[in-house]
Amino acid sequence: MALDPKTSTELGERLYQSMRSGATLAPLTETHPGIEINDAYHISRAMLNCRLERDGEKVVGKKIGVTSAAVQEMLGVFQPDFGFLTDAMAYANGAAIPVTGNLIQPRAEGEIAFRLKADLQGPGVTEADVLAATECIMPCFEIVDSRIDNWQIKIQDTVADNASCGVFVLGDAEIDPKGVDLAQLEINVLKNGERISSGKGAAVQGNPLTAVAWLANTLGEFGIPFLAGELILSGSLVPLEPVTAGDRIELEMFGEGIERCSVRCSFA
User: How many CB atoms lie within 10 A of CB 239?
Assistant: First the structure.
């Protein structure tokens, strides 16, 4: 049975307060066993509205997560989630990201980010449509962060929790994706100077373009478009890596037709 609007709003408020206080919540799928994906989306919107109305944040894009087999196995969630990016989540390349008072249980994901030059709205968005609407791609770290106890999430929990989004960092390189085989782009992730993982674009639903088209069509079911100028995070190519204060991470992206480029950050 679907949740009533009052309960969805209350749960969105609880997730917002958890984010601000650093105190995690029991999984919503335990406290509200009948929760459905549509309910989770409305909870996510209620949480987002708290950020927009109380903190003055602005939506700057969208994200898809839990797209690769490696991440699905780690989390025990076997379908993608989706959420929103705000300006307050963005950090510059090379930034020192504060952990205390800012993040609860962060993990780093290595991704390919898309910046759009044209609007897109599902249903019916194809990979070709995504490519035509993309201004550039960039190497990206998303630092995911769950407001749910010990990452004990099901798909409804993470969708409600804005797809477990924390903050993100974009590299400086802006690459024209036309003529680039995105499925064969490769990344290496280094932590404190040592390589910890590697992956290819194909890890994300076979191709990052496929993942972005899926997200456009899924959000289109809720009447939510992609807008020109927005950022779209297409999902992690590698397993999630826990990070704590003092850690340094770097992502190298390379492939045929592009120069090697990178993004990095540290945690304070």
Answer: 19
